[in-house]
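Field reference: "sequence" (input) and "structure" (output). Example, Isoquinoline 1-oxidoreductase subunit alpha:
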Amino acid sequence: MAKINVNGSVLDVAADPATPLLWVLREQLGLTGTKFGCGIAQCGACTVHINGEAQRSCVLPLESISESDTIVTIEGLSADGSHPVQQAWLQLDVPQCGYCQAGMIMAVAALLEKNPKPSDEEIDAEITNICRCGTYRRVRKGIHLAAAAKA
């Protein structure tokens, strides 16, 4: 049994300590917004915030998370979809299939917390999530729109 702090609640989870956080979130806690993509931390579909940093949860074992760590999933980013990144995504119709978008939104939200006005070069360096539909131009436009909304 482990205790983890997810979306503001300390929860008990019964899982093998080596279980990736992604599967604890999805299967133990029912937080299915975080997606499985590659299983090797390349695609970013599984991105969550841990202590405010974007992390790929598919390779993080449960045992690496302590009760003092704060985990935020897409479900915890905003209860009503009002986060500026979510609003920008809606306004610009950023996703095509949408599978990668929860991870993309989480990565972008973390970037904008650290860097409220990123340049295109900074976006390219920081947002390495893969979108198989190729919506990268709309993603970049959405990032700039969300940054302007936060200002």
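The first helix runs from residue 21 to 28.
The chain has a mean pLDDT of 96.
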